[in-house]
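Morning!

This is the sequence you dropped in the shared folder:
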Amino acid sequence: MTTATLPLSYRMEAEATVSGATMKQVCSSVMSEAGYDLSGPIYSITPSIDAIANTSGERIVAGIRMVSGRTDNIVIPAKLDLVTESSTTIEWKLRRNPTVSGFAWAASSNGRGNVEVTSSGSIISGGTVIDSGLFSSAGSLEVNTPTGLSLSLGVKPDGSSEELFLTVASSGNAKATGMLGWRELY
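The structure's back. C-alpha cells below.
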C-alpha cells in the first residue's frame, strides 16, 4: 500500500473444508514508519476575481480531486480563504462527493499533474458536509495538520477519486468568493 487513504483489503481462505467452522476477521491496521512530512508548498484554486458572482443559494467556488490514475497520491486540504463584500455574512461549507452540475475539471496550474480543479458549478444534492462556518469579512482559515489528514482525499469504491468542494451561500445575494488550498504528498 502506498498511501493510508486508500482502502485496506485482504482475503481469508480456508485451506481445507472444516465442518461447522467460522472464520472471522477482527481488525486491520495501517502503520507508517515515518509518517508524512506535512511541509511544502500550498497549491490553490480560486475563481477569477475579475467577476465575483453574487451568491444566491449555495454556489461552488473551488473544487479538487486526484487525477484518474494518480489516486495513490496524498492530497490534503491545507487552507481556506473567504471574502464577502460589505461585511455580509456568508455560510461556507466543505462538501465531500456531492452531486454537482455545470462544471468541468481541469488540470491544476502547479504543473505536477496530480490534481484536477474546478471553480464553477452548482450543488445538486447529496455528499457529506465535513466542515462549515460563518464568515462576514475577509480572511484566511488555516487547516491544522490533524484536521487536514482527516480530510485527505481518498478513493471511492468504484476506484475514482473523492471530490472536495468549497461552497458559499448568503441570505442577501451578496458577492462572495473563496480559495481552497492543498498540499500534495507522496
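Headline: The longest strand covers residues 74-84.

More detail when I'm at my desk.
O.
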